[in-house]
């Protein structure tokens, strides 16, 4: 994982509906857990999805990587940490999921988002000031 500029974390108790018949979390649900922590991180610098929209930019995820280390299970309490590691040209957020009780690493990964101007639908090669100003005010 890269050096974090800003970090946020959240705790989640694994619900039954996220699990397969063996009470193990289905692999696709980890992206949802990343999303919960990502939103907490974006709120730290006041640029959650509504602020993105209001600033005139879409921020699609163009890359998502997940490394499964151990299995999360029904009713387990997990901590999901999201760390901002890049923001000048794109948003790169690193994730780490651990067991709340033991600290055992369960999953890690990252996502990359790029700014797309809403009116022109053009991808931006530099992050807009609407993001940069907010992040730098928190550093």
Provide structural commentary.
- The protein has 3 helices and 7 strands; from the N terminus they run E-H-H-E-E-E-E-E-E-H.
- It has 139 residues and is α+β, with helices and mostly antiparallel strands.
- The strands form 2 sheets. It has a 5-stranded antiparallel beta sheet, covered by helices on one side. It has a two-stranded antiparallel ribbon with strand order 2-7.
- The two termini are 19 Å apart.
- The model has no long low-confidence stretch (mean pLDDT 97).
Keyword list:
139 residues, two-stranded antiparallel sheet, Thiol Ester Dehydrase, Chain A, alpha+beta, 7 strands
* Overall tally of structural domains: 1
How large a portion of the residues is in β-strands, by DSSP E? Answer: 25-35%
Mean pLDDT: 97
- Helix run count: 3
CATH topology: Thiol Ester Dehydrase, Chain A
Q: Give the neighbour order of strands across the main sheet.
A: 1-4-5-6-3
| Beginning-to-end CA distance, first to last residue | 19 Å
Q: Do you know the CATH architecture?
A: Roll
Sheet with the most strands, sense and barrel status: 5 strands, antiparallel
Radius of gyration using CA atoms only: 16 Å
Structural class: alpha+beta
Number of strands: 7
Order of helices and strands: EHHEEEEEEH
């Amino acid at each position: 994982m890269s050096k974090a500029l800003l970090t946020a974390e959240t705790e989640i108790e694994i619900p039954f509906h996220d699990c397969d018949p063996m009470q193990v979390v289905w692999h696709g649900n980890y992206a949802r857990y990343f999303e919960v922590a990502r939103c907490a991180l974006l709120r730290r610098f006041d640029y959650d999805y509504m602020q993105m929209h209001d600033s005139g930019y879409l921020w699609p995820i163009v890359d998502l990587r997940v490394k499964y280390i151990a299995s999360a299970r029904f009713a387990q309490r997990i901590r999901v940490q999201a760390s901002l590691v890049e923001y000048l040209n794109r948003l790169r957020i690193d994730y780490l999921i651990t067991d709340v009780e033991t600290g055992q690493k369960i999953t890690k990964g990252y996502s990359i988002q790029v700014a797309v101007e809403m009116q022109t639908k053009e991808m931006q090669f530099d992050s807009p000031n609407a993001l940069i100003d907010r992040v730098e005010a928190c550093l």
